[in-house]
Design a protein that fits this description.
The structure is a single chain. The protein contains 22 helices and no strands. It is mainly alpha-helical and 432 residues long. The radius of gyration is 22 Å and the shape is globular.
């Protein structure tokens, strides 16, 4: 167990020194594995090569590049503006309506892109000019966008849910279905958070102008492809028409057709640029996956998972208490690591304990995703906050972090509700 803690310390040090997470986990895991095998480097490199080949050939991982490609095509189709304008037509005339419209647009964009950072970057470009035009407080408006972007890792299709499903050996389709209820819950809580802010500080979110009825319906009609794609992908999985892997291919094809229809994917150059972007993101993600798998092998060899099982037994923690303890650890790790890195590092360590305690691993996966979601908007890393800051360099980082505080509170409320009412996540599965 001591060598495992030393390994985690070395990993943290490498990350603080600026090494990418994938290479940090790979290096630490490789050296740690060799140390535990009496410095048998041949065994360590054999383990690494076999694991990379086996993981890369895993058919289940094929959903990742396809869902990423789906998100790239949707982004290229420039649907974000239509989503925002439709949401504005619905809510813009009310106090705080622009902020609520941003939350809805983020949810809609997330439902077909699956990327938190892409959602935050895109909605900053689309929503921020509107909110500045109506004199919204910059801290509040940037906080709404940063927090709204986190919906991308909860609302299916979600890459972190795919990663969790593969690591925990859970049905990805069930995880997607289980993510729908908590996803809508988060949207509702974020909108309540907006109402709370404008009730306490009316000047933070003034009302916008109303939209004529005919124009409202025109804007509503413009977003039907997004709804159709979401229903097609998720409905097909729910009713067993196709598997998550098949759904990812259908989603990518549908989003490509939509981008072509809008005139944004008419040349080979457009297609090449889209494929190149998806391939680059996939490669970066797979390096993290490979590194985390190697690090997990080192942790398993060190005996840490078994030691944790014994420790939990001695402490007499209940299943809920154990999950709560894991959540606290993940919240702190979320201040340092990205969401997928946390899932790959923590889940294999605690999985044996959770299985022995008969914790519902589908429910636990949803809880984990909400916890790592917090890491996207909490200091010092807060990837979504830094994304908004990069798009709006005139807003100080501290002001954006201040703006996300109500939404951090909303995430914590969502966590509490999931602990109190697990059916929010798993209830929909009982109707299947």
């Amino acid at each position: 167990m001591t060598i495992a803690l030393v390994g985690f310390s070395c990993l943290l040090l490498l990350c603080f020194l600026g090494f990418p997470l994938g290479f940090s986990t790979l290096l630490t895991g490789l050296v740690g594995f060799a140390f535990l095998r009496a410095w048998d480097w041949h065994a360590a490199f054999t383990m690494m090569s076999q694991l990379i080949v086996e993981t890369g050939a895993n058919y289940g991982l094929s959903v990742i590049p396809l869902f990423l490609l789906m998100g790239v095509f949707i982004h290229r189709a420039n649907i974000s503006e239509d989503l925002f304008e439709a949401s504005y037509a619905l809510l813009g005339k009310y106090r705080g309506g622009l902020a609520q419209a941003t939350v809805l647009a983020c949810a809609g964009f997330s439902a077909v892109s699956g990327s938190s950072i892409a959602t935050a970057a895109t909605m900053t470009k689309v929503a921020m000019p509107y909110m500045r035009r109506y004199r919204y407080d910059d801290s509040f408006s940037s906080g709404v966008i940063a927090a709204g972007g986190t919906l991308g890792i909860m609302i299916p299709p979600s890459v972190p849910l795919v990663i969790y499903g593969l690591v925990a050996e859970q049905d990805i389709g069930k995880l997607f279905i289980a993510g729908v209820g908590p996803g809508f819950l988060l949207v509702a809580l974020y909108m309540v958070a907006v109402l709370a802010v404008v009730w306490l500080r009316p000047a933070a979110g003034p009302a916008g102008e109303g939209v004529p009825r005919r124009e409202r319906f025109r804007r509503y009609r413009s977003v039907w492809p997004v709804l159709a794609l979401f229903v097609l992908v998720l409905g097909g999985i729910y009713f067993g028409i196709f598997t998550p892997t098949e759904a990812s291919g259908i989603g990518a094809t549908g989003s490509a057709a939509f981008a072509w229809w809008r005139g944004r994917l008419r040349t080979l150059g457009d297609l090449y640029a889209s494929l190149l972007e998806a391939a680059g993101t996939t490669a970066a993600l797979f390096i993290v996956i490979f590194g985390a798998q190697i690090f997990s092998n080192f942790i398993n060899l060190s005996g840490l998972p078994g030691a944790l099982v014994d420790l939990v037994g001695h402490m007499s923690l209940s299943p809920a208490g154990t999950v709560f303890a894991v959540c606290v650890i993940c919240i702190f790790l979320g201040m340092i690591f990205e969401a997928i890195g946390i899932l790959l590092l923590i889940v294999p360590v605690f999985l044996p304990t959770l299985i022995i305690m008969d914790v519902d691993l589908i429910w636990f996966g949803i809880v984990m995703v909400i916890v790592v979601e917090l890491g996207l908007i909490t200091p010092p890393i807060g990837m979504n906050v830094f994304t908004v800051r990069a798009m709006m360099p005139d807003i100080r980082l501290a002001r954006i972090f201040r703006g996300v505080v109500p939404f951090v509170a909303a995430d914590l409320v969502a966590l509490g509700l999931l602990f109190a009412f697990p059916a929010i996540a798993v209830g929909l599965l009982s109707f299947k």
